[in-house]
Every structure is written in structure tokens, then in C-alpha cells.
Amino acid sequence: MKTRDKIVLAALELFNEHGERNITTNHIAAHIDISPGNLYYHFRNKQEIVREIFTLYSNELLERFTPILEQQESLVLLKRYLNSIFTLMWKYRFFYANLPEILQRDEELHQDYIVVQEKLQANLVSIMADFVSLGLLQLSPSEMKSQVRTLHLIATSWLGYQSAMSPKTLITEEIIHQGMLQMIAVVKPRATETGLEQLQLLEEGVKAMHA
């Protein structure tokens, strides 16, 4: 693995474990046993590393939430998207937990974030339309946008909300699963009979992970 990639992965690991604000470039260099000078050869400062992680996150986010062209069984599709939500929130949990603070420090990153999230929301509206066509949900086009906005709000704010509700919140897989259950609860009232059955199966699966 190239040194640049090692730096990014080490930073992601340390940011997730200790919080981005508590980690310096010296911590990152020491973690992979390189000199600070070697790190600065690849990145001028920590903010450049954060931007690199954001690029990885953005690419994965848009790839995972692209409407599926081929026909798949509805429960498989629901599981795929739910698993993607969990994977991204866990893999990049430092970013979700401190989103406003990270974006406020970097105007360029903030603009990039807005562009990516607008693309994501357009994709999510298309995905929601797919679920309507599959007979899982009952939503008008205008209701789809509102539903997507609510789900997007929960996904992006859930970890920050949990941190705000407790002075020493440790981000765990269980907390992310609680966020997934919250999203399922929001969708349930708009589900058809078939959709409700599928959502209940997903809900039971998530709950079983921590039974």
C-alpha cells in the first residue's frame, strides 16, 4: 500500500476512535511509523487529509445509493440500502458525529459537501420511486421529496444528536442500529401491506443483532 493511502486509512481509524479534533498529524505519522516530514510530503496539513477522506466517503455514498436498473427482489433491495446506511455511518462515524464543526472550518469542503448531498437526494428520490413502483410504498412525487429529506436528516444528524443527548456518548454499532430503526419507523406509515411486511422483517433483523 502506498504511503499516502496508509496516511488516509490511519487518519480515518484514529479520527473514528478518538475524534478528529483530538488527533494531530503527529499522531497519524506515529501510528504508521513514519516521520512528520514524510506525512507533510503527501499532505500539507490535517485538513487536506480530512478532504481526502471526504472524497472517499462521497464516492462510496453515491455508488451505494444509485438507483438499481436490474430487477431484484424487494427485500434484497431494502436490505442492500439499509446495510449501506449502516456501513457508511460506521466507517465514517467521526464525520457524521461532528459534521457542522468540520464543515464550518472549511468553506471549500462545505461547498463540496452540499453538491454531493444534492446529488444523493436526487438519487434517493429515484430510489423511493422504485419502491413505489414495486408496490412497497404509497407516496406522491411531492411526498417522496419530503420523505427523502426526513430520512436524510436522520442519517446525517443521528450521531450528532446522540452525542448531544449525553456528555460522554461512545459511538457504537448499537447506536447506529437505533438510527436505522428510527428510519424504518418513519417509512412504515407510508408502506403498503406488502411493504410493511418487508419493513417488519428488516426491523426484526436489526433488533436481533443486539438481542
Report on this model:
- This protein is mainly α and about 210 residues long.
- It has 2 domains: about 1-45, Homeodomain-like (Arc Repressor Mutant, subunit A, Orthogonal Bundle); about 45-210, Tetracycline Repressor, domain 2.
- It has 11 helices and no strands.
- It has helices at about 5-20, 25-30, 35-40, 45-65, 75-90, 95, 100-105, 105-135, 140-165, 175-185, 195-210.
- Helix 4 runs parallel beside helix 8 (about 105-135) and helix 9 (about 140-165) packs antiparallel against helix 10 (about 175-185).
- The protein is elongated and about 60 Å long.
- Keywords: DNA-binding.
- It holds the Pfam family TetR.
- It comes from Vibrio panuliri.
- InterPro entries: Homeodomain-like_sf, HTH-type_Tx_Regulator, HTH_TetR, TetR.
- This is TetR family transcriptional regulator.
What is the CATH fold-level name of the largest domain?
Tetracycline Repressor, domain 2
Structural class: mainly alpha
Number of H- or I-type helical stretches: 11
Task: Quote the beta fraction.
Answer: under 5%
Mean pLDDT: 92
The domain tally reads 2
Distance between the termini: 39 Å
* Low-confidence regions: none
Proportion of helical residues: over 70%
